[in-house]
Amino acid sequence: MPIQPAQLAALMREVEQEDPIDFADLPFPEDELRDLVANHLCEMAAALDNFSHEDRLTTLLAVSAKLVLENLVLHVQLLRRHGLPVGENVDALLQRLRKGPDSEK
Q1: H/E stretch holding 6
Q2: What are the C-alpha distances in Å from 14 to residues 4, 8, 32, 60?
Q3: Nearest C-alpha neighbor of 2 from the set 33, 48, 35
Q4: What is the DSSP secondary-structure string of 8-67?
Q5: Which residues have C-beta within 8 Å of that of residue 39, sequence separation ≥ 6?
Q6: pTM of the entire structure?
Q7: Using alpha carbons only, what angle is made at residue 18 by residues 13 and 24, rounded to the nearest 5 degrees?
Q8: Spatial contact of 66 and 60, defined as CB atoms under 8 Å apart
Q9: Which tens digits make up the pLDDT trace of 45-58?
């Protein structure tokens, strides 16, 4: 049986204990936002039922990668907007990106 939205929202809260999300002053209750995202992702996963296991994993990995990239971009934009330095990990990543793909060789 596929995961249900309430189960996914509970897992999200569990993961957030290690890496909390700063909801700042958003005018929405945190649990409602989690429920909205959990519902959307469960609907997306259900739409992949006809995909092969490999295609389903690849699609979910692509969606995850896009979300991580979007989060990185928004994080850096927010820091720059407030004149704050980026963390060491983000700075190292940005330095690698500026040098290009051949810089790791």
Answers
A1: helix 5-18
A2: 15, 10, 16, 20
A3: 48
A4: HHHHHHHHHHHS----TT-SS-HHHHHHHHHHHHHHHHHHTTTS-HHHHHHHHHHHHHHH
A5: 5
A6: 0.71
A7: 65
A8: no
A9: 899 989 999 999 99
